[in-house]
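Justification of computing resources. Each target in the renewal requires a structure prediction run like the one illustrated here; the chain below, 490 residues long, is used simply to show the kind of job we budget for.
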Amino acid sequence: MTAPATLKAGPLTQIDFYKADHRSQYPKGTETVFSNWTPRKSRIDDLDEVVFFGLQYFVASSLVDSWNRDFFDRPKVEVVERYRRRMINANISIDIDHIEALHDLGYLPIEIWALPEGTAVPIGVPMFVLWNTLPEFFWLTNYLETSLSSVVWGPCTSATIARRYRRILERYVAETGGDQAFIDWQGHDFSYRGMYGTEAAMLSGAGHLLSFTGTDTVPAIDFLEDYYLADSDNELVGGSVPATEHSVMCMGTKESEIETFHRLITELYPSGVVSIVADTWDYWKVWTEYLPELREEILARNGTVTIRPDSGDPVKILVGDPEAPEGSPAFKGSYELAWELFGGTVNGMGFKVLDPHINLIYGDSITMERCEAICAGLAAKGFVPVNIFGIGSFTYQYNTRDTFGFAMKATAGVVEGELREIFKDPITDDGTKRSARGLLAVARNEEGELELAEQVTWDEVRNCAFEPVFVDGQVVRTETLADIRMRVRS
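Resulting structure tokens:
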């Protein structure tokens, strides 16, 4: 595994300021802090399971690479002085003996036990638990909360939403007799440019690739090779096709737009898939003038010409606008126009399948609701939905940690040798922030569903669905992309 570029902020200062002095605020004699990471609430209707994904990256990139490179492997006087300066200049007056002691130890005395990544975890069930392994470093467990939370909630959220998209497509393909194998390509990640930086794009894009193989987020493939043992030489991690953008079409001039189409499909890409953005000027003219003229050349190709509308109401553009003049291109919609021009076949369930030489991809403002509406509208008109959905930052960036109520909270501790089962239950809350209590374990019931068990023993923690991932500075379990995909798609 390789590490990303070193950040100027070392791992020691990747905290909220209030974490710095919690060490002195815990009761005297505190020896252990036991915490968990749990999705507590879903803000997406009818979605009550969250895909667990991203911890392995955090462990490898932060707990191993960054802590070693930027703390343990650097001179103690340098890292301690840097930390002291950061605290003093922010009016945080604390001693730093515990930081020196951690450096002297030479590793992170932390254990993390987790469910397998790719598991669909019910709301309210912990994905992983963690605790300190040496009593003098009890403060370290929740010291890691801020950086851990900031990294892990995002890939879990995107992986969950991608899985939801896939479930929608699977249902409609099954109901219309379509090709289940093509679903891998029906969700295509267009989100990179709208994400909050490249790390966010990689984490989210990798979550997308658990359910699909279509992506334009190239670093997500690098990420999965670096941190999830993917191998693009021997497996399809993610892929795309040649595609135009508006600058290409504009540079070819409005007057010569059909010549641009012709050059693309006959000279540059005479075979295979090519995606052409078609709304630069008059989208309906493309369907009623250009494509009819190019019809025989398109049908003669060994491959698919994919037309991309990129504006307007996605449902109306693809399915048809009932408020448009009857019989007009807008009234018919793209699918009906494609069927009239290129034809296709009728499958055994009586649904129409577009000729494989032509297809559509829509990547502007797609949401789960619009995906559902498009599939339902096409099925109602007798079509198998074979179009591709470009899923962008409108889907993957418009989320927060609260989308699934993620939180890392302590539920148990040891003080002077005594186990204390701790919990919170604010009377001013709706129940979302009520925490579990005591040591926690997760196991499958008779129906195979994951359930939380509270107030258990240490033996039960270590003999449940959790598996050790990180122990005393060492990675002890590594998941592969192939295994994670299998769990997500099962």
